[in-house]
Design brief:
222 residues; alpha+beta; five-stranded mixed β-sheet; four-stranded antiparallel β-sheet; 7 helices; 11 strands
Length: 222
């Protein structure tokens, strides 16, 4: 179902990617359970990051690996900004639907870059590739975006699903009507298979608690 292009393997030989497919997202939800999970996890994050400072945080895994990747483009890893909003500004994870909230919460907790897609909107096989030309796709906000040269991206047989620097697309975004989803982890060089696997298990744990009817179809690391 997924192919890692030879160019990815030659340019980023140690890079790992994770993928999880879940079914039953339209089952009855437990809103109070998800709210409690978010409150509990955020409180624990604050305890774990008491006295937080960005500079020393960037020396730790996995932040150091994403920081190195983003530095190629003179950018700051955006998940770091989300973590700081939680730790320093008292922000929470907005109520945008449990399938997305579970992904965001795990992303901020584990700091692994994650994209979520409606499985039924994906057409054909998936491919991870490196951008060698300025291809365009409609971003999740609905605006046209252009791939950044040498950035990693995921596509199906119809078009681009997501990229590291520009995020997920609009066509396969998770919505209220999404029944089955694919969660994809961009594990840049240095991010290990155990970290990716544990991150996917975190997402699945949140989902199974807040949506009792959800089923994990598969978890794979490539």
């Amino acid at each position: 179902m997924i192919k890692i292009s030879p160019s990815v393997k030659s340019t980023f030989p140690e890079t790992k990617f994770g993928m999880m497919i879940v079914n039953g997202l339209c089952s009855p939800i437990e809103r109070a359970v998800m709210d409690n999970i978010k409150a509990t996890e955020i409180e624990q994050m604050k305890l774990n990051n008491s006295g937080y400072e960005r500079k020393p945080a960037l020396t730790k895994e996995p932040l150091c690996h994403y920081a190195a990747y983003y530095k190629r483009y003179n950018k700051t890893y955006h998940v770091l900004g989300q973590l700081e909003s939680v730790l320093l500004k008292g922000k929470s994870i907005p109520p945008v639907g449990i399938p997305v909230e579970a992904m965001f919460l795990a992303e901020v907790k584990n700091l692994l870059l994650t994209a979520g897609h409606d499985l039924e909107m994906i057409e054909g096989d998936l491919t991870v590739n490196i951008a060698t030309e300025p291809l365009n796709y409609k971003g999740i906000s609905g605006k046209e975006q252009q791939l950044i040269k040498n950035d990693l991206y995921l596509s199906d047989e119809k078009g681009i699903l997501s990229s590291i620097m520009n995020g997920p697309d609009y066509r396969t975004r998770i919505t209220e009507s999404t029944q089955n989803a694919l969660y994809f982890i961009y594990g840049v060089e240095g991010v290990t298979e155990p970290l990716i696997h544990a991150h996917l298990k975190t997402i699945s744990s949140y989902l199974s608690q807040a949506i009792p009817g959800v089923e994990v179809q598969s978890i794979n690391v490539y």
